[in-house]
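Worked example

This section walks through a single chain of length 71. The input is the sequence exactly as stored; nothing has been trimmed or padded.
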Amino acid sequence: MVFEFATKRDINGNRYYLGIDTDLHVFSKERGHWYSRDEIIEISKTDYRRLIENCENSRMFEIDYFSRRVQ
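Given that input, the structure is written out below as tokens.
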């Protein structure tokens, strides 16, 4: 299952992205190759950092981007 998160926009309009694929046991901070761009869950910057820390503690691997799956 793939979860996609984005932080709320900061003063400059920037957002931080996080995608987690629990099946492949990987996570990515890049947005470009995600499955869905419409259903991104908005989280706080604190939750963003906490999720990354939890992924690392769960021994998930960080990858540059998710490659698209052929359906």
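What to look for: Residues 2-63 form one domain.
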